[in-house]
Design brief:
The protein is of the alpha/beta class and 340 residues long. It folds into three domains: 136 residues, 3-Layer(aba) Sandwich (Rossmann fold); 148 residues, Dihydrodipicolinate Reductase, domain 2 (2-Layer Sandwich), CATH 3.30.360; 32 residues, no CATH class. 29% of the residues lie in helices and 24% in strands. Helix 1 links the parallel strand 1 and strand 2. 44% of the residues are buried.
């Protein structure tokens, strides 16, 4: 029997949009006709393949079955203007931006966690924030076995999470510092897209500061986790930081479970869970690192250990490629659920 194919649009050709194109191609998504939209028409080359980019317009979505909106971390994207226009013309929108995530009518989906929520869509499905995706993917199997009553997370988020301009800023700052012989670690890049210098630095500021002096990125971890896991009783606190890494978000996550569960049992459960890889051998200095997971689709977990002072307390170290599982891949996996 011939496999049904679909007309697909990718909106945006920034870092996430390009990864969406890679994921569609690499996973052999059943595409009949592919359209690529951006603010302006042009031609781009990706992995030695040429893509014709059209200027985005409402009429461009005529005949489109699935529209993937790339969005930008922490910013409002084209979905505000064009998502409903695409839905009106028959498309299902999967939006990687922040515009619809907390809308009660829009499901917020991580396929390994809340697959059934896809069926509740009314034309739009939201892709969660990158840091949320990898955390809930790692915690969900533990939650199902032992329950979770508290989460304390510190993220170490790569420059690519803020877009290509942030990656260029990091690169330029590294060159400036190196050319000065490390004499002065404080530099001013011409291409500055982040609020602080990133090279040779870490700063705890992603998004805008808001309620209780938490940033918007920190509140995303709280509210999105509650929505995805359908449990707003979990106590969640977070600090989100930007680190001088090109791609790959890392997270130090502390949890308190409802029931007692050993680190070895956690390792066994996570090792058998789809989309997760456990790398945890302290005696061999083996644990996930962003330099090793760039371009990988899985969420990697290590440093799984008890809190020796708190009953049912556990630590985990979670790492994932923020452009793939944290954005593009998760969106394409949602599309795969739609056509299944």
């Amino acid at each position: 029997m011939r496999k049904q194919k679909y007309n697909v649009a990718v909106v945006g050709v920034g870092a996430v949009g390009l990864e969406m194109l890679r994921c569609l191609r690499g996973r052999n998504f059943p595409v009949s006709n592919l359209k690529v939209f951006a603010r302006s028409a042009r031609e781009i080359e990706l992995d030695r393949q040429i893509y014709e980019v059209e200027a985005v317009s409402a009429g461009g979505f005529i005949g489109i079955d699935i529209a993937l909106f790339a969005g930008t971390e922490g910013e409002k994207g084209a979905a505000v203007t064009y998502a409903f226009e695409a839905v009106k013309r028959g498309a299902v929108v999967i939006d990687n931006g922040a515009d619809f995530r907390m809308d009660k009518k829009v499901p917020l989906v991580v396929p390994e966690v809340n697959t059934k929520d896809v069926k509740k869509h009314r034309g739009i499905i939201a892709n969660p924030n990158c840091s949320t995706i990898q955390m809930v993917a790692a915690l969900w199997p533990i939650y199902k076995k032992a329950g979770i009553k508290r989460i304390i997370a510190t993220t170490l988020q790569a420059s690519s999470g803020a877009g290509r301009a942030a990656v260029e800023q990091l690169k330029e700052e590294n060159v400036l510092i190196a050319s000065g012989g490390y004499g002065n670690l404080s530099v001013e890049a011409d291409n500055k897209s982040m609020p602080q210098q990133l090279a040779y630095n870490v700063f705890p500021h992603i998004g805008g500061f808001s309620e209780s002096d938490y940033t918007s990125e920190e509140w995303k971890l709280v509210k999105e986790t509650h929505k995805i896991m359908h449990d707003d009783k979990i106590k969640i606190s977070a600090t989100t930081t930007r680190v001088p890494v090109r791609t790959g978000h890392s997270e130090s996550v502390y949890i308190e479970t409802e029931k007692n569960i050993t680190p070895q049992r956690v390792k066994d459960i996570l090792s058998r869970s789809p989309g997760l890889v456990v790398i945890d051998s302290p005696k061999d200095n083996l644990y996930p690192m962003p330099k090793d997971i760039e371009g990988r689709d899985e969420v990697f977990i290590g440093r799984i250990r008890n809190d020796p002072f708190v009953k049912n307390g556990l630590w985990l170290w979670i790492v994932a490629d923020n452009l793939r599982k944290g954005a593009a891949l998760n969106a394409v996996q949602i599309a795969e659920l739609l056509v299944k």
